[in-house]
Design goal:
Layout lengths: L4 E6 L6 H11 L8 E6 L5 H10 L6 E5 L16 H6 L4 E4 L2 H5 L5 H13 L3 E6 L3 H5 L3 H16 L8 E4 L13 H16 L3 H6 L2 E4 L7 H5 L6 E4 L6 H10 L1
Parallel strand pairs: 1-2, 1-8, 2-3, 3-4, 4-5, 5-6, 6-7, 7-8
Helix pairs in contact: 1-2, 1-11, 5-7, 7-8
Amino acid sequence: MSRSLIVAANWKMNGDSALIDAMIAKLSQVSFNDNVKVVIAPSFPYLDKLNSAVKAANLSDKISVSAQNISEQTSGAFTGEVSTAMLCDLAISHTIIGHSERRSIYGESDTLIADKVAVALAAGVTPILCIGESEAEREAGQTEQVLAKQLSAVIEKTGIEAFANIVLAYEPVWAIGTGKTASPEMAQETHAFIRKFIAASAQDIALMLPILYGGSVNQKTSEALFAQPDIDGGLIGGASLKADEFGTICQNA
């Protein structure tokens, strides 16, 4: 059994109803391979609209809708937060957790991210868990140490078995929104390390674990990246805000 290829769109704090309409129209024209899945993560106010548009276009078997973040709390007096129960009420199946912008701008720790992963899993929501090193950490030769620490925090919280229900996204921080992209060979080397790290605890889970690459992926770079043996798709930022380009990336997959 082979791993699915996942093309995930992270719209960040961008997008509107017009983008939803354009994206659905474009993706309705794409001929997907059977093993390709698409996940789109708009901002919270657009989750229900996008989900409804996916269903109306009869694309539910190919496109899943994801939140960009989730609270580690399940309910209560936490103004501005969104719970897994709310996602489930809207039939939202995925949530991004631990994106580098959440880690760096909003100070989310490895421990907090692990708590969020646990809460999502408990609710039956699939976490897209982001990990990655900064440029300084890569230049210092600390990439594997940083990734191991980020993964270990989640493993200690949830157990390795939980990774059977997680999607990983490796995003080198230095490549996000900068136009820099790791070479396919560099990205493959890091993905292979991640899979080997998981395999040390559970080889069967590691073999089936989808590991996406993120970091200035576009229609020109996606094909070579997706062809690497341990790269199972991409978490796409800026290029996912252009319906034609994102459609091409999905077609490349």
